[in-house]
Design brief:
The chain is 33% helix and 21% strand. The protein is α+β, with helices and mostly antiparallel strands. Helix 1 runs parallel beside helix 6, helix 1 runs parallel beside helix 18 and helix 3 packs antiparallel against helix 4. Keywords: Flavoprotein, Oxidoreductase.
Length: 554
């Protein structure tokens, strides 16, 4: 029996950033591509649209202008010290990590600039570590905020795909849910599944799953770019790392519900090997969205380093688990306490300088590319309007003039868990006494002082060290912080051409993977920990690789 002829050169499953980059590369090669996406067209661009737009670059002009001395050797030291590769399954992730570092230190910035992407001039310092030089963390600031945030990164690739539609090279099929990869003669030759009913759900909101038809799409190459598992809390708990005790009973979602991991199991059924499924990246600074778009919608606070971090009972977190230093180290500690939340205690002076909220919609000045609004919001008096809105409307915020009132408000939010008010007061007073001199033994205060030697932090990110109980810095603020699901760090194992590999290590003919579905490359190029700004970059790099490889193979 003759095989059904291909209807397109390449199929891309998933219309997020990695999928759009891959499709743009196929179009650039003059080949045809069909994009299959189960969500409505309103969600075109996937999770990247919601992002803050941070990108990891090495030795960039922006860094050099801020007085930062970076190098690929230092970046490699930081990456591998953070990744902690220690498994047989890390062979390909190691290679992907090395290749990505070359990209980040080489053509990444110029490649994006050619497509109209530019960056905010102040480089952020994410994941500061706080251990030894060879341990986890960024030794220097590397977090480059895209002018236009997530939509700004998406824009050139959306434009390339739309242009491909006009040229007859791209077919967009929304509401097409892939249920199976088609295998003929030992090769993946396409995908089949259900056509879902139209839905006018807004971007990111849940859409219906009513089946109105089916489809069978054939191609010489198929690229899976369907994302991870962060919207599927049952799957997150099932794959929860054993080293982190019991998974949280309650979590917020940092991604829409359709980020459910379905395509990972479907790819595995087609012969692809899944690796490092217990490696994942969830944030500990989640707050409940007062205007949710998807179920359990949470927003992440991007904190500066000054807030005092307490566990659910009021005990200060250990060194170096300060805000912005070690995401997974903090997560591991919090779940070990037996609770699934923690607290920030801070002042109005700190929130004005140090609180940013992750996401394009929470940063309208940067997203809208408005210099006037940016100067008003970031350098004017008070916190940004989105932060003040959460402080006023968010259910997780307590604002008070005295420590006694603050503690009463915190206890009212969590009546079933006693907070040791005397201990909290004692810890804050002890911390405040350390500010009587320009030297001291409190590691967090010393870290604040060191951070302010970097002029980017001193300018817009780190408040001048002051007493928490100083009335002139008030009012006092407490924020209840939830675990916020976000990224899968494992996925489909791929070689450096983004070809999906089987259990024997051989390529699955016709099948490629990119983005979060591939652990951003190789099945987990971050290892155990991310240096931040590497998720969008991983989508760019792996999507580009997959698109070029698939186009050259057809």
């Amino acid at each position: 029996m003759n095989a059904t002829p291909a209807s397109t050169d390449v199929i891309v499953i998933g219309a997020g950033l990695a999928g759009l980059v891959a499709a743009a590369e196929v179009v650039a090669a003059g080949k045809s591509v069909t994009i299959l996406e189960q969500e409505p067209e309103a969600s075109f661009g996937g999770q990247a649209w919601w992002s803050f737009g941070g990108l990891f670059l090495v030795d960039s002009p922006e860094q050099r202008r801020m007085g930062i001395r970076d190098s690929i050797d230092l970046a490699r030291q930081d990456w591998f010290g953070s990744a902690g590769f220690d498994r047989d399954e890390d062979a390909w992730p190691r290679r992907w990590a090395k290749a990505y570092l070359q990209f980040a230190a080489g053509e990444k910035r110029a490649w994006l600039r050619e497509r109209g992407v530019s960056f905010f001039p102040v480089v952020g310092w994410a994941e500061r570590g706080g251990y030894t030089a060879s341990g986890h963390g960024n030794s220097v600031p590397r977090f480059h905020i895209t002018w236009g945030t997530g939509p700004g990164i998406l824009a050139p690739f959306v434009a390339a795909v739309r242009e491909g539609v006009d040229r007859g090279l791209v077919t967009l099929r929304f509401r097409h849910r892939v249920d199976e990869l088609i295998i003929e003669g030992g090769a993946v030759v396409g995908a089949r599944g259900a056509v879902l009913a139209p839905d006018d759900a807004e971007r990111g909101a849940p859409s219906n799953r009513d089946v109105v038809g089916d489809f069978d799409e054939r191609a010489a190459a198929t690229i899976v770019t369907s994302g991870g598992i962060g919207g599927n809390h049952d799957l997150v708990r099932e794959r929860w790392p054993k080293r982190m005790d019991t998974p949280p009973a309650s979590m917020l979602s940092g991604v829409p519900a359709h980020v459910d991991g379905r395509m990972l199991a479907i790819s595995e059924s087609a012969g692809a090997r899944l690796v490092n499924g217990d490696r994942m990246w969830h944030y500990t600074e989640g707050i409940t969205n007062y205007a949710p778009v998807w179920p359990q919608h949470g927003i992440r606070i991007l904190p500066g380093p000054s807030s005092i971090w307490l566990d659910a009972t009021g005990k200060r977190l250990p060194v170096p688990l300060f805000p912005g230093f070690d995401t997974l180290g903090t997560l591991e500690h919090i779940v070990s306490t037996g609770y699934d939340y923690s607290w920030f205690v801070l002042t109005q002076s700190i929130i004005e300088k140090e609180f940013a909220l992750s996401g394009s919609e929470q940063n309208p000045d940067l997203t809208g590319k408005s210099v006037r609004e940016l100067l008003r919001q970031r350098l004017g008096k008070g916190a940004t309007e989105p932060v003040e809105a959460f402080k006023r409307l968010g259910v997780d915020f307590v604002v008070a003039d005295t420590i006694g009132e603050l503690m009463a408000g915190m206890q009212a939010l969590t009546p079933d868990v006693p907070i040791d008010a005397d201990l909290v007061r004692e810890q804050i007073e002890a911390r405040d006494r350390q500010l009587d001199n320009d030297f001291g033994k409190d590691a967090q205060i010393n870290a604040l002082r060191q951070a302010r030697h970097y002029r980017g932090d001193k300018l817009i990110r780190v408040a001048s060290p002051h007493r928490i109980l100083d009335p002139s810095a008030g009012p006092l603020i407490a924020v209840k912080l939830h675990i916020l699901t976000r990224k899968s760090l494992g996925g489909i194992e791929t070689d450096l051409d983004a070809r999906a590999l089987n259990a024997s290590g051989a390529p699955v003919p016709g099948l490629y993977a990119a983005g979060e579905a591939s652990g951003f490359g190789g099945g987990g190029m971050h290892g155990y920990r991310s240096l931040e700004g590497t998720f969008l970059g991983g989508c760019l790099f792996s999507g580009r690789t997959a698109g070029r490889a698939a186009a050259s193979a057809v």
